[in-house]
Amino acid sequence: MIGKTCHFTGKSGTTTVVGVTAQLALDDAGLRRLLHGLPPVDQVGADARAARLGTRSIKTTAKAEALDLAVRMVDLTTLEGADTPGKVRALCAKGAHPEPDQPECPSVAAICVYGDMVATAKAALAGTGIKVASVATAFPSGRAPLAVKLADTAAAVEAGADEIDMVIDRGAFLSGRYGAVAEEIAAVKQACRTGGHDAHLKVILETGELATYDNVKRASWLAMLSGADFIKTSTGKVSPAATLPVTLLMLESVRDFRAQTGRQVGVKPAGGIRTAKDAIKYLVTVNETAGPDWLSPDWFRFGASSLLNDLLLQRRKLATGVYSGPDYVTVD
Amino acid sequence: MSETKKAETKKADAKKTPKAGKAAKAAKAAPQAAVVTSPAPSPAPAPAPATPRSSVRKTYKLYIGGAFPRSESGRSYVVTAPSGEFIANAAQASRKDARDAVRAARSAQAGWAKATAYNRGQILYRIAEMLEERRDQFAQQIASVEGVNVAAGYAQVDAAVDRWVWYAGWSDKLTQVLGSANPVAGPYWNVSSPEPTGVVALLAPARPTLLGLTSVVAPAIVGGNAVVVVAPDAAAVPAVTLGEVMATSDLPGGVVNILTGAPAELAPWLASHLDVNALDLAGIQAGSTLARDLEVSAAENLKRVVRPAAGYDWSADPGLARVKPFLETKTVWHPVGI
After folding, report:
1. Model confidence at B9: pLDDT above 70
2. CB A14 within 8 A of CB A260
3. A122-126, A247-251, A260-264, B7-11: which range is least confident on average?
4. pLDDT confidence of residue B21
5. Which CATH architecture group holds B76-335?
6. Residue B163 Cα, gap to closest chain A Cα (Å)
7. Mutation test of the interface with chain A: which of B94, B102, B275, B300, choosing the one with the most A Cβ atoms within 10 A?
8. What per-residue confidence (pLDDT) applies to B309?
9. Which tens digit of pLDDT belongs to each residue from B15-32?
10. Inter-chain residue contact A325 with B99, CB threshold 8 Å
């Protein structure tokens, strides 16, 4: 039971953690003491627990509910160099009415695009209540001067983005310059408040590049301490992208973080989740790890593009009793 | 049976163990008593009782997407000869296996249709070559599954090999025979050519096992379709072996997917599947309620249906009767003289 033993027991103690959130005055050495004081992750145990949670069988009415919840949690994403305003508008239309002939089918949570497409998406989604998320800070590599990253973020916020998906500086994190990572996240969080806006900040850890589960846990805590509203697994441009054990670990981190500080942080696995079956495995893991408080689009999202089509095919299979096919959903 | 015997031997061994010391002593004492004068050479060890070699039995699994998975349901059934004798255990496919097979067929179909007709012909011919090489194995299987003599088994294998070769030859001739250049009253060059319809679900006949399966699969794939074929009951054994032939014949994985089990269980899911484009009811009894129900479900997305024909002679020259239903005609109007 990894989950039960992961309470934060760093030397600094609870009060220090709250203090860090407030002022972030720790230097590299202080952050190192704090993050390396986190209990280590049992990798074998985490993999085993994730595998076990993935075997739950969700059927009939529970499945119908899970599918609808998963649709509501999708951040429908297009992050290609070849994106055009027309493609973004088509994606927005699909996100708003995934099943045009079934008004009871819910909309997705957000449309996730590059910064220059925010205005297009915002206009296409006017009045639907669907959020516009924009990647920023030199996505996906994050290799740009801080001033450029902040300008990138501010531009997306000015254009109307409700959510900003930033990438951390993995190079700095892996070389132990935790202070630089923390300051950058805090600065981007500040940029999210440009012009009186208050965009939600999702921090992409790019777990595929962090090498170990211990690093994933440290990066999660570092992001949360620095002001992240969401922690997100991956950009989707690096393999492996989201995996169930990594998401399990991040869910444990947000649960422990709330227990320690009282602040709730969301989780977004992104990349590689293509089937409804996978999505349901993630929902089971959310419920069993972080708890039902996170079973809402406000606290858990799927970053995906092809997942939505499979969710719709499964909804139809449940409704009509016959298998549907790719001829009956959009090509994207 | 050999396993039970083995277990019994083990039991007997276990019983002996406590007395083993005594027995050894007795064994030592006996030769000494007999040959008193030569104490030096130790008694020749008694030849070890020949342990019967336990045979390695084959599991007949499904053939989906170029791999041989077990049924997702974990079920299997016993294949018996008409005399009731045990032949093998075969995987009993479920509706989810059918769904997976359709998905595999769909993803393989475009690539198979895009291969040149010449290349498809070569691959079909390769299947014939590999089948010919396994003549003995198939003849034995047909003989035991159908309860006929081995000579009849050989005759059927030969007919099946010939049929693969026959359809292989058709691959680059279909367009000439089924296509046309149409005279039209206008400044157009107008041509029609046959195109594959997509994914075809086939319900293979129960008898003849190998020839029946060949006669439904070959005409469907020669034109560029991918197929999901249900081999009923005892036909599973030659069908899965034919899958092994296909897996080693350069046929891209997923072009032919073989499900074994009960057609009455699988057919309704394939007939109602919206990603299946055509249905061959060869193995369903003509005039039965099942045949009727399948046609009704198939109408949902306008599948092309080949009806079961009572008393169909599988050894007769098939012509193009099973090729044409799975081809669409594409007609192009090309402006000329402007």
Report:
1. no
2. yes
3. B7-11
4. 43
5. 3-Layer(aba) Sandwich (3.40)
6. 33
7. B275
8. 82
9. 444 444 444 444 444 444
10. no
Put simply, the answer to whether A322 touches B273 (Cβ < 8 Å) is yes
Span(s) in chain B for CATH 3.40.605.10: 76-335
**Are the C-beta atoms of B323 and B216 separated by less than 8 Å?**
no
Q: Tell me if B273 and A328 make a contact (CB, 8 A cut-off).
A: no
- CB neighbours (10 Å) of residue B176? 9
Closest residue in A to B275 (Cα–Cα): A325
Residues A153-182 have a mean pLDDT of: 95
**Considering only residues 37 to 56 of chain A, which have any Cβ-Cβ distance to chain B shorter than 8 Å?**
none
| pLDDT tens per residue across span B62-83 | 999 999 999 999 999 999 999 9
State yes or no: pLDDT of A183 exceeds 70. Answer: yes
Residues A159-170, mean pLDDT to the nearest whole number: 96
Say what the pLDDT of residue A26 is.
74
Model pLDDT for residues B118-166, shown as the tens digit of each residue: 999 999 999 999 999 999 999 999 999 999 999 999 999 999 999 999 9
| B21: number of Cβ within 10 Å | 9
Q: How high does pLDDT run on average in chain B?
A: 89
Report pLDDT for B83.
Answer: 93
The token pair at B184 is 């039209």
What is the residue whose two structure tokens read 């740009």? A144
Residue whose tokens read 């590599």: A141
For chain A, list the domains and their CATH numbers.
Answer: 3-319 (3.20.20.70)
> Is residue A124 very low, low, confident or very high in pLDDT (cuts 50, 70, 90)?
very high
- Determine how many CB atoms are found less than 10 A away from the CB of residue A148: 12
**Residue pair A228/A265 in contact by the 8 Å Cβ criterion:** yes
Strand pairing category for B86-91 and A131-135: unpaired
> What are the phi and psi torsion angles at A140 (to 5°)?
-95, -10
Annotated catalytic residue A28: no
CA distance A111 to A308: 12
Q: A165 catalytic, yes or no?
A: yes
Query: What's the 3-state SS for chain B?
Result: CHHHHHHHHHHHHHHHHHHHHHHHHHHHHHHHHHCCCCCCCCCCCCCCCCCCCCCCCCCECCEECCECCCCCCCCEEEEECCCCCEEEEEECCCHHHHHHHHHHHHHHHHHHHHCCHHHHHHHHHHHHHHHHHCHHHHHHHHHHHHCCCHHHHHHHHHHHHHHHHHHHHHCCCHHHHHCEEECCCCCEEEEEEEEECCEEEEECCCCCHHHHHHHHHHHHHHCCCEEEEEEEHHHHHHHHHHHHHHHCCCCCCCCEEEEEECHHHHHHHHHHCCCCCEEECCCCCCCCHHHHHHHHHHHHHCCEEECCCCCCCCCCCCCCCCCHHHEEEEEEEEECCC
Residue A277 is a catalytic residue: no
A328 touches B: beta carbon within 8 Å: yes
**Annotated active-site residue in A152, A165, A169, A229:** A165
Residue contact A325–B106, C-beta within 8 A: yes
pLDDT of residue B290 exceeding 70, the answer is yes
Report the pLDDT value the prediction gives residue B338, as an integer from 0 to 100.
67
